C-alpha cells in the first residue's frame, strides 16, 4: 500500500532526481542529497538554480551547507494545527521528515475516535517529536517521548511550545530505547499506542550499538510485552534500505497478532509528491497494527 503525504501547505518537494531533492520550506528553498532519487533530473537548470541553500557531501563523510543568501538559523512550518521548528543541520537534515505526516494523521484519527479512553502513547527514536505533538494534540492522555540524543529531545521541547501543547502530559526521556522499554515492563507500565522510527545504525547515550536487522526483533518483542490488552495501535517506520515492507508485515503478523488478534495489519511505502513532474519520491516503509 502507498501513502502519499500530500496535505502540506508550508512544504513541497519541488523536484527530485540525479541523487538530490529540491524542497520548499515555508518559502525557503533547500537542495540536498537523496539516495533514492537516482532517476535523471536537469539539476543545472530552472528551479534547481534558485535554491537558497545547497548541501554538499564531503569525500571524508558528512558535508556542509552552501548558502546562496543569508537565511535565519531556524524558522517554522505548520501542518494542520501543528507548528515545527526547521533548521538546516550539519548532517543535511532539517529537523522534520514531512512524509511522516501520513502517520501523524493516521494516529491522530485513531486517538480522536475514542475520546472517552485514556490513551497512553510511547514514541521511540522520537527525534524532534512530530508524532509526539500529533498524538498529544489529538487528545492522548500521556505521550512518552524517548530518544538517545539530548539535543533532539531539547528540539522536541521547542516544538511542544510552538504547538501550544505545554499543558499536555508529555514526558521527555533521553535514554536507550530498548533499556527504557525493559524498565517500563519491570514497572508494570503499559501503552495503548507504540510507535518507533529506528535507524539503520546508531548508538545509545552510553554507546550502545544499534543495527536494524539485528536489534529490531528484540525491540518489537519487548514492546509487545508493554502493549496494553486494550491497545489501539502499533507503528513501525523504517528508512533502512534493502528491506521490503513485507518484512515488517511478517514481523507484525508473527509478533503482534498472536497476542492482539483483534486487529489488522497494514504495510506499505510512504512517499512525497514531486510537484514539477508526475513522480513520487519514495521515503521509507511502514508497518501498522490497529485495533478493529
Salient structural properties:
about 290 residues, alpha/beta, Immunoglobulin-like, Rossmann fold, eight-stranded mixed sheet, five-stranded mixed sheet, 6 helices
How are the elements arranged and paired?
Layout: E1 2-4, E2 11-17, E3 20-25, E4 28-33, E5 53-57, E6 63-67, E7 75-79, E8 82-86, H1 101-113, E9 120-124, H2 130-138, E10 142-147, H3 150-162, E11 170-174, H4 177-187, E12 193-196, E13 201-203, E14 209-211, H5 212-225, E15 233-238, H6 245-255, E16 263-274, E17 279-291
Parallel strand pairs: 1-16, 4-5, 9-10, 9-12, 10-11, 12-15
Antiparallel strand pairs: 2-3, 3-4, 5-6, 7-8, 13-14, 15-17, 16-17
The largest sheet is: 8 strands, mixed
The CATH architecture of the largest domain would be: 3-Layer(aba) Sandwich
Shape by Cα distribution: globular
What's the oligomerization state? Answer: single chain
Instruction: Return residue spans where pLDDT drops below 50 for at least 5 consecutive residues.
Output: none
CATH topology of the largest domain: Rossmann fold
Q: Helix share of residues? A: 10-25%
* CATH homolog superfamily of the largest domain: Vaccinia Virus protein VP39
Query: If helices are DSSP runs of H or I spanning 4 or more residues, what is the number of helices?
Result: 6
In short:
This protein has 292 residues and is of the alpha/beta class. The protein folds into 2 domains: 2-86, Sandwich (Immunoglobulin-like), CATH 2.60.40.1180; 98-291, 3-Layer(aba) Sandwich (Rossmann fold), CATH 3.40.50. 24% of the residues lie in helices and 34% in strands.
Amino acid at each position: 500500500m502507498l501513502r502519499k503525504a500530500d496535505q502540506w501547505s508550508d512544504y513541497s518537494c519541488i523536484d527530485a532526481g540525479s541523487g538530490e531533492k529540491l524542497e520548499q520550506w515555508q518559502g525557503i528553498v533547500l537542495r540536498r542529497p537523496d539516495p533514492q532519487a537516482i532517476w535523471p533530473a536537469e539539476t543545472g537548470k530552472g528551479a534547481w538554480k534558485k535554491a537558497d541553500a545547497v548541501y554538499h557531501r564531503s569525500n571524508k563523510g558528512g558535508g556542509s551547507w552552501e548558502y546562496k543568501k543569508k537565511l535565519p538559523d531556524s524558522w517554522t512550518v505548520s501542518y494542520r494545527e501543528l507548528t515545527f521548528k526547521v533548521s538546516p543541520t550539519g548532517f543535511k537534515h532539517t529537523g522534520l521528515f514531512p512524509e511522516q505526516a501520513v502517520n501523524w494523521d493516521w494516529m491522530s484519527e485513531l486517538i480522536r475516535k475514542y475520546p472517552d479512553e485514556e490513551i497512553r502513547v510511547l514514541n521511540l527514536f522520537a527525534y524532534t517529536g512530530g508524532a509526539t505533538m500529533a498524538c498529544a494534540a489529538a487528545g492522548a492522555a500521556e505521550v512518552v517521548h524517548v530518544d538517545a540524543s539530548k539535543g533532539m529531545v531539547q528540539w522536541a521541547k521547542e516544538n511542544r511550545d510552538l504547538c501550544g501543547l505545554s499543558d499536555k502530559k508529555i514526558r521527555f526521556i533521553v535514554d536507550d530505547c530498548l533499556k527504557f522499554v525493559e524498565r517500563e515492563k519491570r514497572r508494570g507500565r503499559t501503552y495503548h499506542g507504540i510507535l518507533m522510527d529506528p535507524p539503520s545504525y546508531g548508538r545509545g547515550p552510553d554507546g550502545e550499538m544499534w543495527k536494524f536487522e539485528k536489534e529490531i526483533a528484540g525491540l518489537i518483542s519487548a514492546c509487545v510485552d508493554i502493549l496494553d490488552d486494550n491497545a489501539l495501535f502499533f507503528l513501525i517506520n523504517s528508512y533502512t534500505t534493502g528491506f521490503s515492507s513485507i518484512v515488517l508485515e511478517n514481523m507484525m503478523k508473527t509478533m503482534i497478532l498472536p497476542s492482539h488478534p483483534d486487529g489488522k495489519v497494514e504495510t506499505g511505502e510512504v512517499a512525497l509528491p514531486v510537484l514539477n513532474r508526475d513522480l513520487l519520491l519514495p521515503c521509507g516503509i511502514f508497518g501498522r497494527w490497529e485495533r478493529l
